[in-house]
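Here is one chain, start to finish.
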Amino acid sequence: MNKRLMTLVCLVLFLSQFTSLAEEKPTDKPSEGSSVWVTSIEPLSNDTFVAATASGLLLREATVSSFTLAAPEKLTQLYTHPAAVWDVTVSQDGKTIASVDYRGNLVVYDVASKMATTHEKAFERWCQELRFTPDAQSVIAGNESGKVMVWSLPEKKITSSLEVDKQAITSLAFSGDGKQVAASDGAGYVHLLEYPALKSVGKIKFSEDPAWCVSYAGEELLVGSGDRYLYRCSAKADAKPEAIAKGKDWITRLAVSKNGRMAVSSLDGQLFLPKKGNSKEVGSADAATKSGVWALCFADDKTLLIGTRKEGIVIAKESDSWNKPLPPPPAKQTTEEPAKTEPAKTESAKDAPKPAEKKEAEKQDDKKTEAKDEPKPPQK
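Its structure:
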């Protein structure tokens, strides 16, 4: 065989191999046996809930499913997203489900007709948090570029938005009267916004690490941080936070029952039970799971549904430990601005050992190149 013919054969073989690889497009579905992350849980009715899912490949298709309290392991798919779903929310009347994904797509699902409507890039970029507004006519979301946006369901468009900072919005909460929104971010701040004007009225510095979750407790705020502290403070601009509990890992989720009972979880599965009202007392429960906790929801005052990275949905029932008070947390240095001549030493999440599953998630993201142009999400 002469060189010219050999070159031609090699070229044909190469093109054939290249074509076969190009045709092997991702199925956009996790392979059998792969882990499905439960990233969000919300009640749909008295005994039925909805759950959002994701996987290690954040640009793979993901689902929003329903399940019952009696069989949390059996997820019934309602609809899909083209990317990992990070939050799902349900209207107060249970007629509408809304969810948002890694690309900023919004999907609105009508429960009666079982019809899902996708609004591509409605929120522009990845959103970690989505909530129905008090009038249930809109949903509010915060994205990774620091924007808080309100999407009108009847008008099918953004009707108001505010860039509060350049940091990712990690959590949103409405005050009891619906007139204020608290938005936590990746720089350790909580921004206070008037609603529906969506006007900034100030902010509160909690930590140098991300403020992962926020909730109202009467006239106060509860905030979980990446520095492993649970904070409480007045819901007023420039308030001084007080650390009321400390975990062994990032405190990432807050849940409030219909009767006002509160629960907090850290990434290692530990549960904290702040008392009602303005009390600083915090109870503790044994770790409910060894997997990362990415969702927390009350089924009732004595039952918690926990969405995990490896164990699906875990149920935690009230025990004696739920009412056992925690000792006061170790002293936490103030988050006030340090003097330039003598920088304050603040505890950093870098000093905390990273859970093995965080490292595993990092490796998965580093190996995949299907979204080189997408920013890497912060670990949760």
